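for the writeup, i need someone to sanity check this before i put it in the appendix. the sequnce is what the collaborator sent (i think, or maybe the updated version? ugh). structure was predicted straight from it, no edits. if anything looks off just tell me and ill rerun, i have time this weekend
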Amino acid sequence: MILTIDRGDIGALVLLDMSAAFDTIDHGIMLDVLRRRFGIQDAALDWFASYFVDRTQVVVTGTDSSSVCELKIGTPQGSVLGPRSFVTYTEDVSDVFQQHGVLHHLFADDMQGIKHAKPSKVIDVAAELGGCVSAVKDWCAPKRLQLSTEKTVVMWFGSATNLGKLSTGDKLIHVAPDIIEPTTEVRDLGVYFDSELNMRSHVRRIASACYYHLRRLRALRGLLGQEATARLVSAFVLSRLDYCNSILVGLPASTLVPLQRVMHAAARLVCDLKPRDHVTSYLIALHWLPVRQRIEFKLCLLVHLVVNRRAPSYLQDLITLNSTVPGRATLRSAKQPSSSRKVIQSQNWRSRFLRCRSACLESLANRTESYSKHTIV
């Protein structure tokens, strides 16, 4: 998405909503998909069949209970195999997105598609997305799934200048017989994106949620010790600060200030300090990194996963090791923990990502080298 803005294009993000997705999986169709698409047969197929069939449910209210009802559709959502079985059930929807040239990601029952083009071809993008959503809707019918167009969300993103050139009619997505009107902000897997992708809305909402939990914990602070309070703060506050924080890489310090203030408030709560007490020494004692360093840590972790081929392909496409580039494997830089860019150049986020990535890796390598020279007793 951010690369689209770097190129000066306008893009559209469509988030598809399946109604009661896990509860509508047909067991017969599921077993046919396993046999036809994945080649599962004999004892392995019988094992899957034993998991899906012969399930019953009973509704209990107080001392009363309903009669036993056999479940012919659906899969348990709380089980480990439930989300995996739904992914298997809907795996061939990727063919629909590819036929319409729409970049897509599938996360269990969440589907999203992205399409971008130059501002002059926005109408074509809207038509292609409308056709793609209609095709997904038709694909759902034989699988007994239902795509809710009323809950499907579309957001156009780009620079403020390019977005200002679009009329209201250009941004409408037609999915007969419905019309999907665009929104200026969407929530995708817990992350809030706005049309200009400046992430201020996401930061504001995360800070608000953290302060809510801090206020609730403050009411219990007198009953808890420092250790228990620190664990609760880590579970309810720090986990929210760290969730998907790599998307905040390279943002201005003014954007990250609200999150740093949350950390200061959390440290004052854990250490039972007054509102105006300095917290720097207490943050060090708690081993809490500042927000920007937490983002850099996550960035180094992602690069480590890419280097070791354990990251998704859309992350591996961002980085190419010097040691794998023909003609550069013998250079000294190939032995360093730095990387080389792809052919695609960048002006905004990509350069921001690459610059922060290189700086973090070089700093980490220098510190590791300096530490290795000291003898630990």
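The radius of gyration is 25 Å. The chain has a mean pLDDT of 83.
thx in advance!!
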